[in-house]
Amino acid sequence: MIVNRLDCDELHARVDALADLLVDTVDGGASIGFLAPLDRAEALVWWKERAAAVAAGQLAVWTALDGERVVGTVSLAFPDKPNSRHRAELVKLMVHRDARGQGLGRTLLTTAEEAAAAAGITLLHLDTETDSLAEHLYRTAGWTRIGAIPDYAAAPDGVLRPTSIYFKKLGPTAA
After folding, report:
1. What confidence tens digit (pLDDT) does each residue in 85-108 have?
2. Mind listing the pLDDT tens digit for each residue in 26-63?
3. CA 81: distance to chain centroid?
4. Contacts of 129 (CB under 8 A, 6+ apart)
């Protein structure tokens, strides 16, 4: 697997494959902000709308490639406020159902963490569906759970589910 950070042009070039990955992830039951069934056209629009944030440096997107096929992605969202430039939010970690169980989620997570630390980010945060497979990944990667919010978001099947909030300190001050 090759993991690459996308610039705006590369995001546009891979938008079809990213849309397919998003549809597969939602169809697989991952709670990442969409309801099933996710229309591919909606997934295309969603990814295309991310391009401006990538161009502005507000969003960093990585893809994992198996040959030319996009099998995973992860992003970091950077705040625009002066008092929060030390932190970033880990968003939209996705692995295609055919590529799961091979450590790709951990590889993408590590890639984002290392890039954040290299950029001077000292704190990462995220939310994920409580009791999901993703939650297990974050716990075993050293993230700290600070609590859960009940009925936070609808899962792809429309049922309200709790979300767990996590953080991870990076850099020399990380415990």
Report:
1. 999 999 999 999 999 999 999 999
2. 999 999 999 999 999 999 999 999 999 999 999 999 99
3. 21
4. 30, 31, 135, 153, 155, 161, 162, 163, 164
What span, in angstroms and rounded, lies between the C-alpha atoms of 165 and 163? 7
Q: Residue holding tokens 């549809």? A: 23
- What HEC string does 85-140 produce? CCEEEEEEEEECHHHCCCCHHHHHHHHHHHHHHHCCCCEEEEEEECCCHHHHHHHH
Query: 94's torsion region: left (phi>0), alpha (psi -120 to 50) or beta?
Result: beta
Residue 141: other Cβ atoms inside 10 A: 14
**Bridge partners for 94 per DSSP:** 73
Distance of CA 64 to the CA centre of its chain: 12
Q: Is the pLDDT score of 77 beyond 80?
A: yes
The SS3 call for residue 3 is strand
